[in-house]
Specification:
8 strands, about 240 residues, 6-stranded parallel sheet, about 30% helix
Length: about 240
């Protein structure tokens, strides 16, 4: 029977404790294992992940050490600060350092969906002209919102536009329109969040984690758009 001397499992928060127990059964007697994950990105509560303490107790892993991530390499300091604000009470004791500064996070309120689509069509056309090699993601809370935005932008003839479902990303320059869950684990040069309203992102733990994941997909620049009442999770400066 095959037994692994060491097992490395990433994105642990996406596994159920039972699934991890099955994986551990494939290790040698020493049960040498490294588990990596981010509790702030536990956006699938049905998987059963709760806390590191409860998980390690369930798995009965002896001599464990939990080492928090102390440096955030993907996003700029401005994006990380905004994403940490969104987490609120879910933020742990260790706040990661983001050594790279960048453009401020910006929000754009609109009175109607048509106004938002018109603004985005002009901004994206200019972006494609000026930065043709950039990877851009438009992220909605729900797939239906992503599809509606894609159809509006396609009608406006925005170039390099792709609607992503089932995580069928091309990983090439262009504009991907999708929902937050599809984008988990990925990064883009520029992220534009769609419909960040009180209806899409209310003051719940699930919404906090989803919005945090959406924000931290951005490496260099983050825009936030909404029609109507903005999400209460946003910093005050982005809700005006």
């Amino acid at each position: 029977m095959l037994a692994y001397e060491h097992l490395m499992v990433d994105e642990v928060q996406d596994f159920s404790p039972l699934e991890l127990a099955v994986l551990l059964d494939a290790t040698s007697a020493q049960r040498s294992v490294t588990l990596a994950g981010d509790t702030a990105q536990a956006i699938a509560p049905e998987h059963g992940f709760s806390t590191w303490t409860e998980l390690l107790e369930f798995l009965d892993i002896a001599h464990e050490r939990v080492e928090p991530l102390r440096v955030s390499y993907r996003s700029t300091r401005e994006i990380v600060d905004c994403a940490e604000h969104v987490l609120g009470p879910l933020m742990g004791d260790v706040r990661p350092v983001a050594p790279r500064a960048g453009a401020p996070v910006e929000s754009f309120p609109f009175a109607a969906a048509g106004e938002c689509a018109e603004f985005l069509s002009h901004a994206l056309k200019e972006l494609v002209r000026n930065e043709p090699d950039a990877s851009v993601a438009l992220l909605a809370r729900h797939p239906e919102q992503a599809r509606a935005t894609y159809e509006a932008l396609a009608h406006a003839e925005v170039p390099s536009l792709r609607l992503v479902a089932d995580q069928d990303f091309s990983f090439s320059a262009g504009i991907d329109v999708t929902d937050v869950r599809q984008s988990k684990g990925l990064e883009f040069d520029i992220v534009i969040l769609l419909d960040v309203t009180d209806a899409s992102y209310p003051g719940t733990d699930e919404a906090r984690r989803l919005l945090h994941v959406a924000m931290t997909r951005a490496a260099h620049q983050l825009w936030i758009t909404y029609v109507g009442t903005p999400s209460p999770l946003l910093p005050d400066a982005l809700r005006t």
